[in-house]
Amino acid sequence: MNLKQELQQLNDRLDKYRRKLAAAEKRGDQAVILQFKQEINAVTKQIAHVKGQHTRQLNKQGGDVKALPFSRVLTKAEQADMGKLKKSVKGLVVVHPMTALGREMGLTKVTGFAPKEF
């Protein structure tokens, strides 16, 4: 299971526990309230761990892409015909600024990274 799916499942469990906690508080059931508070704390820790893993993975991927010797901003024409561009440039990695990797790298425009000049 990838990190995004795991994070989604953990967030779903957290939401479920919070709803059950609210219902238990409404009933005044102290034993159940304590149990769900512990569950919420455990799931919150797991979510923080998974988010940390995801951030480390993005940092590593961003470092690998930035390590490529050549990069430049892609023109609108190149962006329009991405298939042709990728066929002509071997090893091209295109990073869009609105993706998680693009935000992590701090990009403002669609940028291509390649092992040699294109």
Kindly describe this structure.
There is one protein chain. The chain has 118 residues and is mainly alpha-helical. The protein folds into 2 domains: 1-67; 68-118, 2-Layer Sandwich (Ribosomal Protein S8, Chain: A, domain 1), CATH 3.30.1370. It is built from 5 helices and 3 strands, in the order H-H-E-H-H-E-H-E. It has a 3-stranded antiparallel beta sheet with strand order 1-3-2, with no helix packed on it. Helix 1 runs antiparallel to helix 2 (30-66). The two termini are 36 Å apart.
Count of individual helical segments: 5
User: What string, H for helix and E for strand, traces the elements in order?
Assistant: HHEHHEHE
Please bin the fraction of helical residues.
55-70%
The N- to C-terminal Cα distance equals: 36 Å
What profile does the largest beta sheet have? 3 strands, antiparallel
- Rounded average pLDDT: 93
- How much of the residues is beta strand, in percent? 5-15%
Radius of gyration: 22 Å
Question: Which stretches are low in confidence, meaning pLDDT under 50 for 5 or more residues running?
Answer: none
Number of strands: 3
Shape: elongated
The strand line-up of the biggest sheet is: 1-3-2
Number of domains: 2
Broad structural category: mainly alpha
List key phrases describing it.
118 residues, mainly alpha, Ribosomal Protein S8, Chain: A, domain 1, 2 domains, three-stranded antiparallel sheet, elongated, DUF2810, YibL family ribosome-associated protein
